[in-house]
Structures
1.
Amino acid sequence: MTLPIIALDFESTDDLYNFLDKFPKDEHLFVKIGMEMFYQAGPSIVKEISRRGHDIFLDLKLHDIPNTVKRAMHIIGELGNIKLTTIHAAGGSKMITAAKEGLLSTPGGQDTKLLAITQLTSTSQQQLNSEQNISGTIMDSVVNYAQLAKQNGADGVVSSGLEVTAIKQATDNDFLCVTPGIRLIAEPDQDQTRVVTPEIARANGSDYIVVGRPITRATDVVAAYQKIKTNWGQN
Ligand SMILES: O=c1ccn([C@@H]2O[C@H](COP(=O)(O)O)[C@@H](O)[C@H]2O)c(=O)[nH]1
């Protein structure tokens, strides 16, 4: 079983390092750096967390013209030691292909897995139909984006745990399914609408779960992490 990925979304780098310092020095973590920290601290945060020995998911959700995304992915690859990184599948086939080319254009990006965001776990059925003007179900849209991502060289997708079984059936079992929107009770919470528990994610076949506030905002963050880890199937 993989480690739960902790989403390090904090107001400041001091808060982030205070959080990490609560864990035993030898505890190896898999952490996600998103826009909030990267826009504050830049590449130095990636280097420091890597120096501390943790695995890194750099979640910048790129969505731009193919050439721009290719160049940006080259730079992400050059950071080195990034295990997972993201684009939006809605950027289309050429953008997905360009993103992978960008990673492969530098030695540091060879082992970085490219994930495509399908429909954000905050998106509801109603928003899909009325705001995005996409008819059909969330499931259809997610599976469509997963197939597009696979056909154009992505290594996996980000979706809710509710769609993982269908994605694996429509692509293949090795196509990575990364699941944020994790809560201990499977009910919409905060800004997340398509929510599952670690147990449901595991049963549906998720390869990784991503957990932020249920750990980072807990009173005892280490205990909260251990509980999620146990429920996910990692003792
Ligand atoms: O569809 C998506 C894609 C990415 N995320 C990210 O995961 C974490 C979830 O944080 P919580 O505090 O556990 O809600 C956050 O960094 C998002 O940017 C997502 O939630 N859904």
Note: Residues 179 and 209 are 5 Å apart (CA to CA).
2.
Amino acid sequence: MKDLKNEKILAAKEAVKYLSTGQIVGLGSGSSAYIAIAEIGELVKNGLDIKGVPTSEKTRELAESLNIPLLKIEDVDSIDITIDGADEFTADLQLIKGGGSFLLKEKVVASLSKQEIIITDSTKKVEFLGKFTVPVEVIPYAQNYVLAQIKKLNGTGKIREVDGKPLITEQGNVLIDGDFGLIQDPAGLADQLTRIVGVVEHGLFINIATRVIMGVGDSTESFTKL
Ligand SMILES: O=C(CO)[C@H](O)[C@H](O)COP(=O)(O)O
């Protein structure tokens, strides 16, 4: 049986090799990113001088607990490198993110980043995105409209719930998990979702990742833009 936790650890250890002193580092969210943050905490303890930019409150709390110095996103113009996770990726580095509900901040941080390194276990690589649903962050007022528009795109949408109630994101929005089947044209779907009024952002990360490091058994595989 695959040891997915170990695969994430191996990927995280490989990713932090890209860090160097003086950098501003985006800190992702999710179980893989938290492993990387723990590694970064160790490196900081041993003298690595970086400043982190968190992608969620949970990440901020974790980084603070590890004494990683932090910057506010408002105070940075550019981020040198971000390490984050993903729910699915393809060989040409298109991603679905947002399983952990933090896609909006993750995409802002990724968009500011010169390098976006994604770390995953070996279950996340797919030929076509779409087995994992596409999270769509929506202002609550527009949720029924957006659900109807998703239908027009031949998709089905479901409001994400926690304990029987709609999950409210850190930005006060709701998430619709959109099922579009296997996605043949992720960039096209991303454009269509962006154009729906009331959609704040979605979890298709198109041409954003610069490298994916995937743990496989006892080693890692690295994917870069072809
Ligand atoms: O996008 C995310 C959170 O919004 C996560 O990076 C994604 O869900 C992967 O999580 P994990 O590393 O726990 O598998």
Note: The first helix runs from residue 4 to 15.
